[in-house]
Structure formats: C-alpha cells, structure tokens
Structure of ABC transmembrane type-1 domain-containing protein:
Amino acid sequence: KDGNSIGAQTNYHIIGIEPGAGIMAQANKAIKDYQLNDWQLAEGSSAAMATELKKAYDHKKPIIVTGWAPHWMFTTYDLKFLKDPNKSFGEVEDIHTIVRKGLKQDAPGAYTILDQFIWKPDDMEKVMVDIKDRMDPSVAADKWIKANGDKVAQWTKGADGGNGEKINLVYVAWDTEIASTNVIAKVLEQNGYDVKLSQVEVGPMFAGVANGSVDGMVAAWLPSTHNKYYKQYKNDLVDLGTNLHGTKNGLVVPKYMDIDSIEDLK
Ligand code: PBE
C-alpha cells in the first residue's frame, strides 16, 4: 500500500458513533458495497466523533467520519460528503414524529402540537449551533421559539392547552435530536404540559413508544435510517409524519482532503 494513501494515514479507520445508530449499519453496508476490505468502522459516540474531527481538523490531518446533515459541523468546518453512487447511505430523508397509541385520547392538545410540529434544516441548525457553543439546550430552544413565533403559532393552532398533564418524550443523544426534542418540549410546556425528557438508545426509543411506557418522540429518520426499528414496531406506533424534510447521511471528510467519492477509499 502507498504509505501516503489516506488509508495509511487514518490507520484504515472510519470514525463511527453509537453502535445502534442507523448510520452505523449504513456505513457497514458501504464497506461491503464498495469492497473496502481493509477498512474498519470504529464504534464510539456522537460526541467522541465530533472531538476526533476537531482534533484532526485543527491539525489539517486526514479523517473520515460518519456524518449527517443538518449538523453544526457543516457551519463550523469546511466539510464535504463523499459521493455515494451505490446509495449505501440511502437518499435524502425525513424525520418523523411518532407517538404512542392512545395519546390522542389522553392528551389531545399535546397530540395536536406534536402532529403539527414541522420545521426546516436551517431552523434546526440554529439551535444546534447554540448548543454546540455551550448554551443550555433548553435555553437554546427558548431562544429559537422567541425568534420564531410565527412558526410556533402554526404548531399550536387549534390545540387545547394542557392542565399539567405529564408528557414523556424520549430521544437519543444525537445533536439533531437534542435540538428538536428540546424545542418541542418547551413548546408543550408553554402550552400547559409537564414534559419529561429521557435520553435512551435508539432501540429502546422505538420500543418505549410502541409499548406505551412513554408518549412520543420526534427522532425517527425514514424511510431508510431507522427502517429496521420502524418495521419491527410499526403496528404499535402512531406515525404523525414528517417534522423535517431534507436530512442526509454519509461519510464526511474535511474539504482539504483530496478525495471525492467513497469509491476512492478502495
Ligand atoms: N443519526 C442522527 C441517527 C439518526 C439521527 C444520523 C446519527 C442514526 O444514524 O440513527
């Protein structure tokens, strides 16, 4: 192997995130689809991946990470997605809101707000950037809500206010979901609900909503990323549809790297 090749410089490691994430299954599929036999996908966490990326970027070293958009990393660094002609990472997707059966009867106002929740990648990225700059997530959520009263009014339109009913939302500690979950939680609180947030792994997130032990989540990436979980639980879930259109998953590298496609890693 060429000692200067990207593989040699990165020790043939792709920096991954939590093992259960859909993007990890997609990255393993990419390793097969593109026959990257020398390469390994390193498991870790979203936070550790971001730390590795910063370290490499600050020293202009090569690095390959599993990355997704929207994400603050694209507003903070000059990065690019590697082309994925085999579509191992699927295509542009939507994030869905999913609630438990019976929520509509038990808390109709909260159900309506969750059902009407929809925003754009740019909105989400604003909240993500504030959180990455160390603003408390609930403060960042509140700031975005105050600046976007028109959008929030569309979500709460026609919704009955709550009387302190408890609403339990689950999420995974991905930067995207920390942002969205905090925003919708704050809107529900401002409309009379007592909201509790629980951070879980992706499997338990779907399972909890399906078995009714929690009320809902705004974190289902479909049709591809979370397909495995969605298929398993779909008969026991209420899918309220898209809350954000235009996500993307893939392998992400700094723009200073001389590589454009996943095929180039072979
Ligand atoms: N992500 C962010 C998740 C969905 C949200 C792309 C890291 C995943 O791969 O499961």
